[in-house]
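job 3f2a | input accepted
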Amino acid sequence: MTPISNRLFLKIQCISLDFILRVCLNMDQWLNACVATERAVTIIKAAHFHKATSKKLAKIVIVILVIFTIGTSITDLLYRHLIDEDNEDYKRIWCIVSYPSSLKIFNSIMHIFHFMTPFIINLVSAIILTTKKSRQRSNLQINRNFKKLLKEQ
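job 3f2a | predicted structure (153 res):
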């Protein structure tokens, strides 16, 4: 099997595929956090939850998330390039990203932000969901203790 050696194709693939992959992975985390948040809001508001308002808000949030995620990953497009490696056995072409030092710091902060913030949102939403649901059940089942119901949840 011969490796692909068309530099234009490899350059386009290097830039676009890695960028799209990074954006999609970040969007996955943020959308999961949005779903968790909506579930928590649904439990908190209960009967006062408006589905139509939630749909409108979801559309706006998705657009904002796409713009935000692309915006924080756009530097990846600018600093990707191909490097040739001539080995005894192989001639390889690598897709490498090399940032200036100030951008390395920004990029590291963005990686941490895109990982930790959705994680914290999911964690808080899970805690809210569990406690609110247990509180609702303890209100319905008067003879059962809230702490026991919370442990069951």
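job 3f2a | The chain has a mean pLDDT of 87.
job 3f2a | closed
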